[in-house]
Amino acid sequence: MTKKKSGFWTFLFSWIPGAGEMYMGFMRMGVSLMGLFWGIIALSIFINTGFLMLVDVIVWFYSFFHVHNLRAMDDEDFYALEDHYLIPVDMDQEFWNKLTIAKYRKILAGVLILFGAAVLWNSILDLLYWSLPEYVWDYVRVVSSFIPQLVLGIGIIAVGLLLIRGKKQELLEEDGGGDHAGETDHSDS
Q1: What pLDDT, in 10s, does the model give residues 137-165?
Q2: What torsion do the CA atoms of 163, 167, 169, 171 make, to the nearest 10 degrees?
Q3: Are 70 and 24 in contact (CB under 8 A)?
Q4: Angle CA(6)–CA(9)–CA(10) in degrees, nearest 5?
Q5: In this prediction, what percent of the chain has a pLDDT beyond 70?
Q6: What sections of 7-52 are H helices per DSSP?
Q7: φ, ψ for residue 48, nearest 5 deg
Q8: What is the distance between the alpha carbons of residues 32 and 87, in angstroms, rounded to a whole number?
Q9: Torsion sign across C-alpha atoms 25, 29, 33, 38
Q10: With contact defined as beta carbons under 8 Å apart, do 81 and 67 qualify?
Q11: Are the CB atoms for 40 and 55 separated by under 8 Å?
């Protein structure tokens, strides 16, 4: 059972995403938020894209105000609140069953491909650093700093185009189905 804690310490811990939740006894919530916050920072550094830090600002504000909302709850609601992960995982069932993997297979595949490409890219750059002359390496380093951002940008545009194409097909199917129904009604009358 979680227990309300000191307002002073809650305020201090609330400045670190997840720490306030952990201090109040909500370990799963805290670990989820802390992992998300530091994971975004690590990913942003790894793929050299600073705009991901904007997402981190949102996570920080969510965590900060979430702790204070927990603290402001009346005792009955606070004690009834269950500790859960940020991403709901039913601990009674096996999370990685075939249905779950099938549902998120494309997303998981895309993330793994991007992660593998980033690791491969960094390894190739390390190899080039040791094998190229310094004046060539300087040129390669400058050019290579833009490639992860270009790939990410192209990927975002591709996902956007796929979403637009999927919505357009959905609208065409709805319109096509409506025209067919209208034609059959006119022939009957």
Answers
A1: 888 888 887 877 787 788 888 878 877 87
A2: -170
A3: yes
A4: 80
A5: 76
A6: 7-13, 19-23, 27-46
A7: 60, 45
A8: 8
A9: positive
A10: no
A11: yes
In whole angstroms, what is the distance from residue 50 CA to residue 138 CA? 22
The amino acid sitting at 66 is: H
> In the block, which residue shows the tokens 């009604």?
185
Tokens of 108: 């998981």
- The amino acid at residue 171 is L
E-strand spans in the chain? none
Which contiguous run of DSSP H or E holds residue 105? helix 105-131
Kindly report the pTM of this predicted structure: 0.49
Tokens of 138: 């300087």
Among 187, 179, 1, 6, CA closest to 79: 1
- pLDDT tens readout for residues 167-186: 777 777 777 654 444 444 44
Tell me the chain's radius of gyration from C-alpha atoms: 25
- Length of the chain in terms of residues written: 189
Amino acid letter, 178: G
Tokens 């550094």 locate to: 45
CB within 8 Å of 17: residues ≥ 6 apart:
33, 34, 36, 37, 59, 60, 63, 64
State how far the Cα of 81 lies from the Cα of 1, in Å rounded to an integer.
Answer: 10
- Could you give the CA distance from residue 32 to residue 20 in angstroms, rounded to a whole number? 12
End-to-end CA distance of the chain: 70
